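Batch manifest, entry 17 of 40.
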Amino acid sequence: MSLGSTAAPARAVEAYNEDVVRKFVVMSIFWAVVAFAAGTYIAFQLAFPALNLGLEYTTFGRLRPLHTSAAIFAFGGSMLIGTSFQVVQRTCRTTLFGGRALAEFVFWGYQFFIVMAALSYVLGYSQSKEYAEPEWFIDLWLTLVWVVYLLIFLGTLLKRKEPHIYVANWFYLAFIVTIAMLHIGNNLAVPVSFFGAKSYSLFAGVQDALVQWWYGHNAVGFFLTAGFLAMMYYYIPKRAERPVYSYRLSIIHFWALIFLYIWAGPHHLHYTALPDWAQTLGMAFSIMLWMPSWGGMINGLMTLSGAWDKLRTDPGLRFSVTAVGFYGMSTFEGPLMSIRQVNALSHYTDWTIGHVHSGALGWVAFICFGTLYYMVPNLWNKVDIYSKRLASWHFWTATLGIVLYITSMWVSGIMQGLMWRAYDQLGFLQYSFIESVQAMHPFYVIRALGGVLFLVGSLIMVYNLWMTIYHGEAVQPVGKKGRREGGGIIMGFKHEYIEKNALLMLVLILPTVAVGGLVEIVPLFTIETTIEKVDGVRPYTPLELAGRNIYVREGCYLCHSQQIRPFRDEAERYGHYSIAAESKYDHPFQWGSKRTGPDLARVGGKYSNDWHVAHLANPQAIVPGSVMPTYAFLAEKKVDMADPAGHLIANRRVGVPYSDDQIAQAAKDLADQANPDADTGALLKRYPKAVVGDFDGNPAKLTEMDALVAYLQMLGTLVDFNGLTLKDLQQ
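Output type: structure tokens
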């Protein structure tokens, strides 16, 4: 397929490698529609759970990472790589380093990663880390592709024909380098077998939680912020035909942003088992982050000084400028929500979902739309987009969709938080958890309708860009192949030395983005009191481990937390607050970040085996108003753990103290725990307090239902808090 066939003859031989940029643009448009369609569908699933269809492949838990990965990595990632290839060539006045072969490898390699990741989620292969769900073999492939991408980008900077490195390229370079660091650090894992898909993360419990949100928050900070700020710094000046408002402000914006952002991850873990010093550090840096973020917003908006009239006639610029406004709003709301007292209300609620999507839709998607309305005519040698009227329809349809989405989530989120902590006049909790779920229904419908409008707007864009490529007015051929544009502005102080030396910039970026993570993460491994020394916590039995793997596979952490905060309402609703010791063998941790369903940290022993089986088979029959998918298929599937000893060995390699005896007896213990006729005396010596017996009502068959119920029945049962003092629980 040739993506350049409609270009004028003079562009057949071009100075820049624009063919790979065109390919990334086409795939960005495709993945945008996939991401928005998947997001809209799972939004309707939360309003109407029958849309889970009763199939294991279409449950919310499997489709949600499909949506997030399609939006962030497929749509957003393709846009970032494609625009970085265009910007670095044009601002350096040279073609891509490594020739067309390396660029083609990055394109096809990245698209292969996206397809493999999507298939793995649907088929049930996930390591259950938010925004980092792909299993180890897919992570390795992405690492290879990303290293080649870095080589191309850095090599192009090194062979540039411009003396200065333009500001957009600073942000692209920081984005590429930091994502590589985050990806490798967060995805360290030990596979059960070189030929198998399952792996166990290197870190566990509280350490894994902080490593995950060091990654998770900075995936937002560098993938969804720094990279798209690079687009702002190039494409808004191009469309406005104005220079960047303040080059000095862009310098402050860049270095302050990449230094401060990396510290902010712990604010996702307020009031959890993470030590207070780390939570406070994350909150402090999150609040400071507001200043450089708004400095960047001001720089972007003020670039339009003298060109505000273009907003009336240029829909693409209108998208970009509106995106900068959403960026400012999101980067004010984020620091606000990082304050512990605010987070106490907002965490685990839909408010967080509204915040994420105001940034994802309003900032990321809109800056991409504005960029696409510039890139497509430019790359296909057209005078302008096919229809400005259609672009305006897209703008207003998408804007209305965003408004419906985020306002419904703001209202429902605050309502959730207030309902969970509400007490009646007699001092009892006023609402059951399911009442808060039922109260969310109208807001979930409004959210889904907002998604429909946003999807419709994207389809309008697809038609408009298609018509631009095949029916747009062609630009008359010109003789020049390489125009000088976007070169660096000479500064009257020492920063110009950094701007002239790509390797020096790389060397300075690395410690700037690494120091925050090191300061926060390393002490969790060196301070002995990080994990309390309490009795009772033991490794999982083979059957419990199999059940936990099913819990991970089905994405249960997306709707259920396993972390009780030290609040009166949570203690009364769920039990004693969680401590770090309880999850010290959890590879990976399962604390969760959203409560569409109740917390499960102490669900063990609260309900009978029959209740769990019936609830998993038909949630709405047991809890009317529940939005949980049906998992009846678990009762039909045999436990897929061909080598239980191998799973225990893999866990021992990451620090779980399985003994040789436990490993040798793994296969027998797996079968005996769910066999009511088995002699389980030796098993109970190896695993005290293990629940034994038939779990699913079918003793003739060891099913995934047996395993999952066995796992649920042990949650929160190992530590006896009645015998502990406050000193025992101090970190």
